Amino acid sequence: MLGSMKWIQDKTILVTGGTGTIGSELVRQLLLHGPKQVRVYSRDDTKQYQLLEALHEPENLRLLIGDVRDKERLSFALRNVDVVFHAAALKHVPICEYNPMEAVETNILGSQNVIEASVQNNVKKVIAISTDKAAHPQNIIGMTKLFMEKLFINANYTRGATNTLFSCVRFGNVTWSRGSVLPLWKEQIRESGSIKISNPAMTRFLMSQEQAIRLTMNAMEIAHGGEIFILKMPSIALGDLADLFLKKYHPNEDIQKKSTGARAGEKLHEDLIDVLSSHNYTSMYENEDMFVLIPDPNAFHIGSSLYKVKGSERGYPGCKETTLPERYSSKEHIDVHQIEKVI
């Protein structure tokens, strides 16, 4: 369940990447709670038009064509905005491996543009959407997303006299998101009567679109700046996920499974938390649904008091301090029953 969502009322909210799977669902949910205006900032006019039609042209929706690489246009779009959800990104592992500088331009430099334009326009809060690939990164998407996280967390120290707060949410794989494995398998069955699995032994964290939106919206409501919010989620081996998928959606069909080998940049297992990408975090809080990583208040030795308030005093709902683990790996959190519910 989402919180009260009263913070949305009468606010002007901008969503970068607002026509993507997560961005468009954020837009839908925000419009349910009485915002003054929701602005979609994205590159594809066809997707914007489709979203406008699907939402029946609400009067408080604005569609702005633009790229996060274009700081001037972004700054214009952020005029009089209260809060920002930064969902724009290049996200496909093999595409980013083949086009690394393009991933840098969008995921790193574009994110810095979001930070600077938000500060210039006195935005109150900005939440950036990251990925488990940022923990112990071994591919371009993970490296650029980890860099993005560092930019957002560090912006709380370097924002100057403004009060803009920056935090991140870290996702696993979102089921049925555009380009993800489940809709891909559905299309493969339609075309060839079989599905392709890169490596059946690979494990991945999975979360539903509903869980992803809930985490992101709740993070915006309770963030004090500098946190990384991480949903507690189960993982599954791709071979078992394929079996669940076929059992649920094609129970009486003879569907072949073909192993194709790992694609460029793919890891065998993913991490939600690991010591290598969390070394600037000295404490962690948790409740039943999520972890909250709190950065080191002395990371830059500038006497900042931003992070010296304990998590329970910051207002994280039902949170208690816990030990920061060295690793939270998909290899160790397999739960087929929970994944069956998610898909």
Q: Describe it for me?
A:
36% of the residues lie in helices and 23% in strands. With 343 residues, the protein is of the alpha/beta class. The chain has a domain of 238 residues: 3-Layer(aba) Sandwich (Rossmann fold). The strands form four sheets. A ten-stranded mixed beta sheet has the order 3-2-1-4-5-6-10-15-14-16, sandwiched between helices. A three-stranded mixed beta sheet has the order 7-9-11. Strands 8-12 form a two-stranded parallel sheet. Helix 2 links the parallel strand 2 and strand 3. Helix 1 packs across helix 8, helix 3 packs across helix 5 and helix 5 runs parallel beside helix 6. The longest helix has 21 residues. The two termini are 18 Å apart.
In short:
With 343 residues, the chain is of the alpha/beta class. It has 11 helices and 17 strands. Helix 1 packs across helix 8, helix 3 (71-77) packs across helix 5 and helix 5 (100-120) packs parallel to helix 6.
SSE arrangement:
Elements: E1 12-16, H1 21-31, E2 37-42, H2 45-54, E3 61-65, H3 71-77, E4 83-86, H4 93-98, H5 100-120, E5 125-131, H6 140-158, E6 165-171, E7 173-174, H7 181-192, E8 194-197, E9 203-207, H8 209-222, E10 228-231, E11 235-237, H9 238-249, E12 256-259, E13 271-274, E14 281-286, E15 290-295, H10 311-314, E16 320-322, E17 327-329, H11 336-342
Parallel strand pairs: 1-2, 1-4, 2-3, 4-5, 5-6, 6-10, 7-9, 8-12
Antiparallel strand pairs: 9-11, 10-15, 13-17, 14-15, 14-16
Helix pairs in contact: 1-8, 3-5, 5-6
